[in-house]
# Entry
Amino acid sequence: MAKFKIMLAAIILVCGAATAAWFYIAHQIDQHIQIAMDDPELGLTCADRSVSGFPFRFDVRCLNATVQSGDATIAIPRIEATALFYRPTHILAFIEGPIDYQNAFTGAHKQLRFETAEASARADFSMNLQRVSAQMVKPIWSDQLIGTVDVGSAELLEAHLLAHAEKDTGFFAYAKFNNVQAQQMGVEKLNTTIEAEITEIDQNLNNWIFPDMLQQFAATEGKLIIQKYETVGQVVPLGQSQVQEIALNAEGEFTLTDQGMLQGILRTNSQNIVDQFDLSALGPMAAAIVGAPDQDGKHNIPVMANAGVISVGMAPIYLVPPLF
# Structure
């Protein structure tokens, strides 16, 4: 009998401690959400928010959310994130559409519809980020100014960020865009794949403080290595009715100087891409930008960054300001 009482007391104690821990963590989550909502730079509001899921989960919901930035307003019907009580560093997030975008200054009104939109993030208990993934199924971007006019769509958009398994710095990135269509722009079908590596970025989220993070990236000679960029598909050139096959491939790498200026090169190889643009307005500059095609009809155009100055071919076109 005494053993039973001791066991019962232990169970009650453990359950009580777990209950207290759940409500404490839920309160901390709610406080952090409130701090984020009080940040004027974020501009986030929720018509209704809650933290539920006791006793095994934390379910965070924000209903009728809006994000305000200057004249632009983004409205999201529902944002939800969930994590298990015993695995709080593995978060699953979901967004319910449609997402509306309005700009009070320009009068623009756009909308993003989709079947599903979800993301996940996983870190260890030391807050070393291990993986981030995001996926949107069948997104459709439309203009809502006068009725609903679909501008572009896709079958699938997905992106992944994976930590380097053998180091405490660096990530691999992968993104894929399937069956992208924008018939108003002459795009019948495009498929894009991107593979990249980011070196020397600390995997510990506690050290993700800007601009210190970028300064450390530059000091340790970190690189953004674009291992593969590939776009293939079909377009209808302006003023024509014949479908044309296009292809664009690229690879390169970029770094930051000690002053935070972008430095590097992206080597591109394209088929029938240059032909989609009217370059007559550029005059003699056109040859400096796109050059001449090779014997296979392909253009090999370098995109260079030199102390922040972006050049396409031999022509400087833009200046990227210092990143820190």
Q: What stands out?
A: The longest strand covers residues 187-202. The helical segments are 2-38, 212-219, 285-290. Residues 208 and 219 are 15 Å apart (CA to CA). The chain has three helices and 19 strands.
